[in-house]
Amino acid sequence: MELDEVTISRAILATQMETMTEYLELDVAVVGGGPSGITCAALLAENGLKVGLIEKKLSIGGGMWGGGMMFPRIVVQDGAKRLLDHFGIASTEFEPGYHVAKSVEAVSKLTAAACTAGAEFFNLIAVEDVVVKGDGRVSGLVVNWSPVEMAGLHVDPLTIRCRAVVDATGHDATISHMVARKGADLTIKGEGYMWAERAESRIVDHTREVFPGLWVCGMAANAVAGECRMGPIFGGMLLSGERAAALVAAALRS
Ligand code: 48F
């Protein structure tokens, strides 16, 4: 068989255009491909929902790749070890209750699980705004290619429709800020000091619907709540992603 460059190009364009067109309408749009967002997307997809994860960077994984200060290891506490096991991520117990995993394996297996469950990933796309109409709910996202945003080009975006949005954009809580800036009844208190025990123990409670149709998880949940940060312990990210998936699934079923 002789390889034809134009066929290769046509294969990429045709299949991705078809997927993008199909995902103009979905159940849940998860914004941010860090550990909480991937966990949330994977569990929602396992639950049979049509899920798209939008990540503005080239790679999925957010702040998990780098472990702690570029040592590619993460620590997960006892309470979240079952999620490492659920996703087949190997770990060793360093001291009682402190489970260490390799960050590259953790990102890869979370991502693989989400793909296997049927979540679609849209990398290199940035969410630049939300859609809120007469019912006062977030019902869609305004998206554009990240390079357009990075280059500051004046190119109009496209829009997708969804039944729920999960803000998993990390420390910046980008989507929540977009909503708050429009004058919505949503206050972003901003992230607090480093305090792992406190931050990890409260993040699941901070994982909630902060505006009709908009849920927060991961560091975005702590940033909205004015809660502390925790550094390279990742159990709270996995548990928060799990909590967001459960809340969204319950809301969409009701
Ligand atoms: O920051 P990030 O990894 O979020 P997370 O899931 O996890 C936080 C931890 O990595 C770590 C920590 C744990 O101890 O404190 O920091 O809360 O991933 C957030 C992702 O969202 C993307 C961003 O590129 C990153 O990969 N993102 C942010 N804004 C947008 C976005 C946007 N407007 N559109 C698309 N993606």
Report on this structure.
It is a single chain. This protein has 254 residues and is of the alpha/beta class. The chain has a single domain, classed as FAD/NAD(P)-binding domain, CATH 3.50.50.60. Helices cover 40% and strands 24% of the residues. It has nine helices and eleven strands. The strands form two sheets. Strands 1, 2, 6, 7, 8, 9, 10 and 11 form an eight-stranded mixed sheet that branches. Strands 3-5-4 form a three-stranded antiparallel sheet. The longest helix is centred in the C-terminal third of the chain and has 19 residues, at 235-253. The model has no long low-confidence stretch (mean pLDDT 97). The structure holds ligand 48F.
Keywords:
254 residues, alpha/beta, FAD/NAD(P)-binding domain, three-stranded antiparallel beta sheet, globular, binds ligand 48F
Q: In angstroms, what is the radius of gyration?
A: 18 Å
User: Could you describe the largest sheet, including whether it forms a barrel?
Assistant: 8 strands, mixed
Low-confidence segments: none
Number of domains: 1
CATH architecture: 3-Layer(bba) Sandwich
The number of helices is 9
Mean pLDDT: 97
CATH class: Alpha Beta
Question: How are helices and strands ordered from N to C?
Answer: HEHEEHEEHEEEHEHHEEHH
**What small molecules accompany the polymer chains?**
ligand 48F
Which structural class is indicated by helix and strand composition?
Answer: alpha/beta
Instruction: Please report the distance between the alpha carbons of the first and last residues.
Output: 53 Å
CATH domain fold name: FAD/NAD(P)-binding domain
Supply the CATH superfamily name: FAD/NAD(P)-binding domain
Number of E-state strands: 11
Sheet-strand content, in percent, reads 15-25%
Helicity range of the residues? 40-55%
Which outline best applies?
globular
